[in-house]
Amino acid sequence: MRILDSASPGWLYRRRRLLLDVLLWAVVAAPVGYAEASPPYSRYTLPLLVGKLLVLSAAVVASRRQPLVALVLAVLGSLVDGNFVFAIPVFSYLAGRRSASVGPAIMVFVLITAGGSALNLGLLGAGAATWFLLASVLLFAAVFPWLVGRYRRQQQELADAGRRHVDALTREQRGAAERIRLRERARIAGEMHDSLGHDLSLIALRAAALEVAADLDDRHRAAAGELRASVSAATERLHEIIGVLRDEGGASVRPSGETVADLVEGAREAGMAVRMEAAPAVAELPAMTGHAAHRIVREALTNAARYAPGAPVEVRLTRDGDRVEVTVVNDAPPAGPLPAPPSQGSGLLALAERVRLAGGTLDAGHRAEGGFAVRAVLPATAAPPEVVGSAAEGGLTSWSDGRPGPVERPVDAERRLHDARRRVRRSLLVALVAPVGFALVLSFVYYPVATAGTVLDRATFDQMRVGAARSELVGLPRRQLERPTPVDRAGCEYYTDGNFPLAEPTWRLCFTDGRLISKEWIA
């Protein structure tokens, strides 16, 4: 049986969530509990209190996964107990903070507005002033906190996008450094393989020539044979260790100033029979093409020395328009190849990749009449930088830590960060402008209803004479405003001058037995 570790991150996270939910419940339940705990009491006080607290508990539980449901429960609870109004801003803020999309919240607010208007104006018969008050409560207790929560959510997403952007840049920098390190290591290893392998092959060729010299005694002949075998074995070990680490990202480094003619001359000095034909037009070649041609001739001469000792070799460099052809052909070895492990072909594969990066093609294989031929066609003009760059960068589809591909490219992370910043700015603008806009909309809806038939202008008010019969008063509005309770007087009527947006009572006309006994301006 597995024992749950009380110190595990998951357990600590669940305990923290539970404590936060309990604290939330205590905050929203305090106004309701305090009101019910205050006298007077009835026999329904306790059941009602339990029911209200259960509703709040359900709202707290739902606020994690369905925050809009929690908001609806708080609004419905306010129909029974006005103290639920204190819970509406809390659950509204959580709805904005925890909801991923905007559409459901807008639909909920529209339904609450429509349902509340129908309930108050239609079923309960509340006046326009009551409707305006309830709509204002919905605006500032529900919509505005939701906008603030939405803004805080966008801020959190912006912070997350910023962290992802920094992580992506860090991974890119690490990956670039790792790729540079690997390319440099492969370049050095490839140069060691090519240069050292070439030199070792020439040493083996000299040892083989010394071994078959007629004027050498048997003891020195045996030593020459051991030297040849040792050099051959060392060449193969070098081939096995670093032959697969070929450079794939650019031109190989070669001895300063060394040309193809220098390579051929070095092979001749080692005892190889090499004939070279080079057109004058190939003297000046682009850097990539020149390096590739040098690499082709060196690899071909090395292979000829290793696998076809004593065979004549022909090197040709010709130019036809914007193309350069490099051909290295060797005949079959007269006495058969030297004993050595079979070739793995990795050198030709690396050579083919080098030629491809230079923008050319390579063809190599055995000839029907015997021997081996290497033929490459290279561009005589410099390739566009974007072509070389795309070829060099192709295949870099994984990070240096061995994952199958980039988690997020810096350009994607930067675009995500830009979108997050734009959403934050938009949310802040909406949070500041929307309440004002909604308030204006409510005012423009409420004002015509409240002022229709209740406006008494100043000139008409001044013309009214105290003592005149009500029926003789000219310009008296057709309906009255609701009587303000704090200043209500029996037999008095209240009118407004049309002040925006609340259309508060401005004039008070008091009548006795149908005659005007007083007229007042209400401050």
Automatic annotation (TrEMBL):
<keyword id="KW-0067">ATP-binding</keyword>
<dbReference type="GO" id="GO:0000155">
    <property type="term" value="F:phosphorelay sensor kinase activity"/>
</dbReference>
<dbReference type="Pfam" id="PF02518">
    <property type="entry name" value="HATPase_c"/>
</dbReference>
<keyword id="KW-0812">Transmembrane</keyword>
<keyword id="KW-0547">Nucleotide-binding</keyword>
<feature type="domain" description="Signal transduction histidine kinase subgroup 3 dimerisation and phosphoacceptor">
    <location>
        <begin position="184"/>
        <end position="248"/>
    </location>
</feature>
<keyword id="KW-0808">Transferase</keyword>
<dbReference type="InterPro" id="IPR036890">
    <property type="entry name" value="HATPase_C_sf"/>
</dbReference>
<feature type="transmembrane region" description="Helical">
    <location>
        <begin position="428"/>
        <end position="449"/>
    </location>
</feature>
<dbReference type="InterPro" id="IPR050482">
    <property type="entry name" value="Sensor_HK_TwoCompSys"/>
</dbReference>
<keyword id="KW-0597">Phosphoprotein</keyword>
<dbReference type="GO" id="GO:0016020">
    <property type="term" value="C:membrane"/>
</dbReference>
<keyword id="KW-1133">Transmembrane helix</keyword>
<dbReference type="GO" id="GO:0046983">
    <property type="term" value="F:protein dimerization activity"/>
</dbReference>
<dbReference type="Pfam" id="PF07730">
    <property type="entry name" value="HisKA_3"/>
</dbReference>
<dbReference type="InterPro" id="IPR011712">
    <property type="entry name" value="Sig_transdc_His_kin_sub3_dim/P"/>
</dbReference>
<feature type="transmembrane region" description="Helical">
    <location>
        <begin position="129"/>
        <end position="148"/>
    </location>
</feature>
<dbReference type="InterPro" id="IPR003594">
    <property type="entry name" value="HATPase_dom"/>
</dbReference>
<feature type="transmembrane region" description="Helical">
    <location>
        <begin position="102"/>
        <end position="123"/>
    </location>
</feature>
<keyword id="KW-0902">Two-component regulatory system</keyword>
<keyword id="KW-0418">Kinase</keyword>
<keyword id="KW-0472">Membrane</keyword>
<dbReference type="GO" id="GO:0005524">
    <property type="term" value="F:ATP binding"/>
</dbReference>
<protein>
    <recommendedName>
        <fullName>histidine kinase</fullName>
        <ecNumber>2.7.13.3</ecNumber>
    </recommendedName>
</protein>
<feature type="transmembrane region" description="Helical">
    <location>
        <begin position="68"/>
        <end position="95"/>
    </location>
</feature>
<feature type="domain" description="Histidine kinase/HSP90-like ATPase">
    <location>
        <begin position="293"/>
        <end position="381"/>
    </location>
</feature>
